Recover the amino acids of this structure.
């Protein structure tokens, strides 16, 4: 894995949060639902596999920042991946069941020095955004993204060099992985 230079296209890593328990803790809300044991294993394994560079993603620059919804299950997923990669985590309430447009708006606010960023979010927004980002002729990308299971990862070359220019229909899927990741 490499780090990106300023003239290179930005990379976007989209992850659907790992498997969560079906119910919130007693007296809690959906926002407080935690990861299930399988979800904790998958998220930790994803982080370790990314750090090791053995997910078959070639020279894709690892994320320098992980953005995540403020919900407990996305935070837990993101914490495990960010810790393995040694990068900061930025939790944003607007990503909690936000629309694809909300996620895109948050990405457009990022500092231009960040060349590769991961977003850990929820479905349906994460899957819808993944599909919306694909260039119209990326049939292989659409086939790979037919579904987005929990803790799945999709990596995009965005077609832009500035986050504020990120748009639907301009990206190419350069990597896709789904659990089980092993440990």
């Amino acid at each position: 894995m490499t780090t990106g230079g300023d003239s290179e296209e930005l990379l976007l890593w989209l992850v659907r949060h790992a498997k969560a328990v079906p119910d919130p803790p007693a007296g809690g809300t959906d926002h407080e639902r935690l990861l299930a044991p399988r979800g904790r294993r998958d998220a930790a394994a994803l982080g370790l596999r990314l750090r090791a560079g053995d997910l078959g993603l070639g020279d894709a620059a690892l994320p320098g920042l992980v953005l995540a919804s403020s919900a407990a299950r996305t935070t837990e997923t993101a914490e495990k991946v960010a810790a393995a990669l040694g990068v900061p985590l930025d939790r944003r309430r607007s990503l909690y069941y936000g629309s694809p447009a909300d996620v895109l708006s948050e990405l457009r606010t990022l500092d231009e020095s960040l060349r590769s960023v991961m977003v850990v979010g929820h479905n349906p927004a994460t899957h819808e955004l993944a599909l919306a980002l694909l260039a119209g002729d990326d049939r292989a990308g659409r086939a790979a993204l037919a579904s987005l299971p929990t803790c799945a990862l999709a990596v995009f070359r965005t077609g832009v060099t500035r986050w504020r220019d990120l748009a639907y229909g301009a990206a190419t899927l350069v990597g896709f992985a789904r659990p089980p990741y092993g440990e």
Q: What stands out?
A: Strands lie at 11-16, 65-69, 89-92, 116-121, 153-157, 172-177. The chain has one domain: 11-177. The CA atoms of residues 57 and 167 lie 23 Å apart. Confidence is low (pLDDT under 50) at residues 1-6.
